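Tutorial handout. Part one gives the primary structure; part two gives the three-dimensional structure as tokens.
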Amino acid sequence: MPFVYSEVCLKCKGCCRYKAGDSPWRPKLGEGEAPSLAQAITGGDVLDEKGYIKTIQSCGEHFCRFLNQADNTCGIYAKRPFECLLYPFVLSQTPEGVKVYVHLSCPYVQDHLPRKDFESYVSYLKEFFRQEDVRAFLARNKALFHDYSAYAPELLHLFDLSFL
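Part two.
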């Protein structure tokens, strides 16, 4: 269940665009996601050596290679990686453990804080992360927990994932 509806995302020009080709905001594939992604694409080397989706550079910006810039759609939407499904929520590794944040740069988030629908979605996320299959996936994929400490002003801490 996404927090931001597709109609909203298709009008926004924020996600899937990066200042640098090696941006830590690019999605990284977790264990088991590569075969699913491979079925959704045709040809080409799409991952870098660390498992991040490579970008395409155009007009001084870097774009996810699956972003169709003409209509803002995703070429692998049905098979998109876990991190793409989760965004604008992110998992961050901190010295205290793994924390769940929301990225405040998302205009939809800005418009929905601190409304009831946002709080309801945070409750949904807490339940989502309690599911055994999700917990097992995250336990196998700790490389998906990035260090976003350099972006602290852009993030709002929601809750900790104490089981990891």
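Part three, for discussion. Strands lie at 17-18, 55-58, 61-64, 67-68, 73-74, 89-94, 97-103, 155-160. The mean pLDDT is 89.
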